């Protein structure tokens, strides 16, 4: 992006291509900042669960958070605990001064539907395991295809990189 901006500075100011490129750079900046805002909102909404998942991941397993997001989540949790202690819990009886944020904050809804793009062919994906025990509802995911499916069905595929959320 910096390279494109440097090229734009060297270009003629009145050229139509320059203004189109500047608009495209601003659009890219907006999309990226919107994406980052969405991630931060999700971290704030589910911070105990996100941190618990980070704590329980296996050695060598890739993190779902960037180092900056992980630091943000830890700081957010510390600030929330401090706020709760200073504002409310210190005025409670001693037996009620403990609060479990993991139990207090709602869990992410893994039954929600997501759009995904298949990067690697997958066969016999069990789509509705609880729907009917007499019959398996399985599908094959072809490389390059797009689907709308429950997140919990494809969560392992997302983690392995076989599919990509869109």
UniProtKB/TrEMBL annotation:
InterPro entries the record matches: GINS_A, GINS_bundle-like_dom_sf, GINS_Sld5, SLD5_C, Sld5_GINS_A
DNA replication complex GINS protein SLD5 C-terminal domain: residues covered: 108-166
Assigned keywords, A-Z: DNA replication, Nucleus
UniProt cross-references to Gene3D superfamilies, sorted A to Z: 1.20.58.1030, 3.40.5.60
Pfam families, per the entry: Sld5, SLD5_C
Subcellular location: Nucleus
Chief localisation class: nucleus
Residue ranges occupied by any GINS subunit domain in the UniProt entry: 16-87
Protein name: DNA replication complex GINS protein SLD5
């Amino acid at each position: 992006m910096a390279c494109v901006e440097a090229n734009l500075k060297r270009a003629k100011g009145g050229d139509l291509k320059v203004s189109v490129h500047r608009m495209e750079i601003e659009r890219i900046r907006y999309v990226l900042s919107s994406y980052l805002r969405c991630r931060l909102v999700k971290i704030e909404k589910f911070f105990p669960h996100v941190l618990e998942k980070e704590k329980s991941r296996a050695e060598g397993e890739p993190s779902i958070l960037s180092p900056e997001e992980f630091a943000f989540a830890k700081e957010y949790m510390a600030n929330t605990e401090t706020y709760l202690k200073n504002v409310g819990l210190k005025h409670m009886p001693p037996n009620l001064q403990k609060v479990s944020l993991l139990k207090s904050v709602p869990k992410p809804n893994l039954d929600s539907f997501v759009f995904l793009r298949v990067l690697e062919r997958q066969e016999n994906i069990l789509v509705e395991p609880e729907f009917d025990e007499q019959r398996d509802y399985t599908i094959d995911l072809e490389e390059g295809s797009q689907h709308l499916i429950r997140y919990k069905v494809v969560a392992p595929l997302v983690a392995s990189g076989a599919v990509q959320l869109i």
